[in-house]
Amino acid sequence: MFTAEQVQSLNELEREVYEFVMRNQSRVQYMRIRELATEAHVSTSTVLRFCSKIGCNGYSEFKLKLREYRNQQKDATQLPDDVTEIMDFLKKTVTEDFEDKLEELVDIIAHASNVFFVGSGMSGIVAKYGARYFSSIGKFCLYIDEPHYPTESRMLDNALAIVFSVSGESRDTISHLQRFKERGCTVVSVTNSENCTVARMSDYNIAYYVTYRRLKVYDVTSQIPAMCIIERTAKKLYRYLLEEGVDLPGEDTGV
């Protein structure tokens, strides 16, 4: 509800109002301006200046925004435990169209000299998992999961970047993608939607379409689709490389 810039603009008395509001949100949304001023030990004029500095045209608008904010926070704590959507996605992965996408991705990875898995936040963890999984089946890969990771290396020349991003709008991920594109790398992205910046900047995209989930400011959208894409692609790649006679780790009958 309050931006860092707004909080920084408050003077000492206005900050007293801010502190009281943050500690007593449930009460403040029903308090009159004089009641708030008395409880916070400031004048009503100070409360009005506080409202103005946080972008509200008066105390009534402030209370309305506070109620809306609390309702949004309440909604954000609803985290349904429903596997129906994931089951629908898994069914989609065995369709002919999806199989074709994975086969195309296998061919790209198989012929890439260097492969980098890229992501940030939760997607960075998925990127790390993907690099480890592919390396385990015999295709050595590296991962990048931090925004300032140096990418000025000859290893990037004509390399393949596999980029993971739920929203497809992460500035850190987009910056990495731009640097890969500048070095002539092929970019494959795995995103929740094909209508996002990362997908549009990529040479190839696989979108999985599940519901975005946020818990307050944290993205808790399921990563199961991305993990599934990693594992299915890696297993297909393993069989492909075996058929090509590539020397690989001992074959596992479960692959």
What keyword list fits this structure?
alpha/beta, 7 strands, two-stranded antiparallel ribbon, single chain, 255 residues, five-stranded parallel beta sheet
Please explain how this structure is put together.
The protein is α/β, with parallel strands linked by helices and 255 residues long. 52% of the residues lie in helices and 11% in strands. The chain contains twelve helices and seven strands. The chain has helices at residues 4-8, 12-23, 25-28, 33-40, 44-53, 59-76, 84-92, 96-110, 122-136, 171-182, 197-201, 224-243; strands at residues 115-118, 141-144, 160-165, 186-191, 204-207, 214-215, 218-219. The strands form two sheets. A five-stranded parallel β-sheet has the order 2-1-3-4-5, sandwiched between helices. It has a two-stranded antiparallel ribbon with strand order 6-7. α2 crosses α5 (44-53), α8 (96-110) packs across α12 and α9 packs parallel to α12 (224-243). It is elongated. It starts with a helix and ends in a 12-residue tail after the last helix.
Structure, briefly:
This protein has helices spanning 4-8, 12-23, 25-28, 33-40, 44-53, 59-76, 84-92, 96-110, 122-136, 171-182, 197-201, 224-243; strands at 115-118, 141-144, 160-165, 186-191, 204-207, 214-215, 218-219.
Write the layout of secondary structure elements.
Blueprint: H1 4-8, H2 12-23, H3 25-28, H4 33-40, H5 44-53, H6 59-76, H7 84-92, H8 96-110, E1 115-118, H9 122-136, E2 141-144, E3 160-165, H10 171-182, E4 186-191, H11 197-201, E5 204-207, E6 214-215, E7 218-219, H12 224-243
Parallel strand pairs: 1-2, 1-3, 3-4, 4-5
Antiparallel strand pairs: 6-7
Helix pairs in contact: 2-5, 8-12, 9-12
